[in-house]
Amino acid sequence: MISAGGGIEYLPSLSLEAYLRHVEVEHPELHRLLDLDKARSEGVLLRLVSVTNEFDTDDTGRGDSYRRAQRDAFARWKGIRELLRLATRTTSAGEKTVLDVLGGDGTVARAAALRPGSRAERLSVITGDISGKMVACALDYGLPAVRQSADCLLLRDASVDATLLAYGTHHIAVEDRPEAVREAVRVLKPGGRLVLHDFDGRSPMARFFAEVVHKHSTTGHDYAHFSRDELAALLEPLPVRTRIVDMYDPLVIEADSPRKARSRVCDYIGDMYGIQGFFAGQLGPDVSWQFVQELFDHTAYFSDLGRPPLGHPVRPIVRKTDSRWTAEVPRMALVAVAEKVV
């Protein structure tokens, strides 16, 4: 597509050069980290814009509904906070730069910025995404953001302190995953960390994707989830020290009554995964909640792990917290933490 100002449309109605001028003024630190020759490569640009992405709009998949869910940047805060903790050294001083490779419209960046006093406040999060619409929305939030594919990052070598591949890593085609991981390591400074997050193919989340999202969303969900062995194999050839951990990563929604908390979490799941029609077909929010409780029951999965996380619910619950009610849907993620060897 051609932008209004001429040239290949890098973002909706915006050419690459117009984007670069904007970033140079509004986000000079990001502009400094960009590999401008690579960004201006016609082959890279044409490959990038040739992709029709399901996260652009609801017409192409579930972009609009996903962004509607992400207005609540804190629904996944427990997991986001832990990912950012794993990505950075506790003893490191000063502001650190994190590239969120699959950042969408900037949920991780917004959540980190809006938590004053937390360790995440010291992080500068750059939002990356392959969807031009997602990146445009992140820029509208005032965030530094760049449109790029996971297997062809537009940042310079050794330019960031951490890279995050999370919340959608299984969308990367299996044949593209080795290059995506190499790219994530390439842009790391020595001693920096790559954190790669997904849901184990045996987990309740993988079952949810296969049995509900694939069957009831517009575009389906025919993506292969990761395993421990695949994570280890992807990272083994690279100059990194790797450990693989299980991470509690729940959905947490607050409301002023138990019924509203249950209803809101079902709405959130419906929007985020493009299955609003499926929930609308249930016999009211109580039946939808019962379905969520059954599908996200982690009793067997925790037992298989042999080390269930202490203090976390094994099934979705609603509990009172101060004057509010909180719905919590448990999810367990598989996370590789790979530190680049100096």
Task: Summarize the structure in words.
- It contains 15 helices and 12 strands.
- The chain is an alpha/beta fold and 342 residues long.
- The chain has a 7-stranded mixed β-sheet with strand order 5-4-3-6-7-12-8, with helices on both faces. It has a 3-stranded antiparallel β-sheet with strand order 9-11-10, covered by helices on one side. A two-stranded antiparallel ribbon has the order 1-2.
- It is globular.
- The termini are far apart.
Strand content bin? 15-25%
Structural class: alpha/beta
Widest sheet, order of strands: 5-4-3-6-7-12-8
Helix content: 25-40%
Oligomer: single chain
- Terminal CA distance: 42 Å
State the major sheet: 7 strands, mixed
What's the number of extended β-strand segments? 12
Q: Rg from C-alpha positions?
A: 20 Å
Explain briefly what this protein structure is.
With 342 residues, this protein is α/β, with parallel strands linked by helices.
Topology of this structure?
Elements: E1 9-11, E2 14-15, H1 16-26, H2 28-33, H3 36-39, H4 42-49, H5 63-69, H6 77-87, E3 96-100, H7 107-113, E4 123-129, H8 132-140, E5 145-147, E6 160-165, H9 177-186, E7 188-198, H10 204-216, H11 228-235, E8 240-248, E9 251-255, H12 258-272, H13 276-280, H14 285-295, H15 299-305, E10 317-321, E11 324-329, E12 332-340
Parallel strand pairs: 3-4, 3-6, 4-5, 6-7
Antiparallel strand pairs: 1-2, 7-12, 8-12, 9-11, 10-11
Helix pairs in contact: 5-12, 12-14
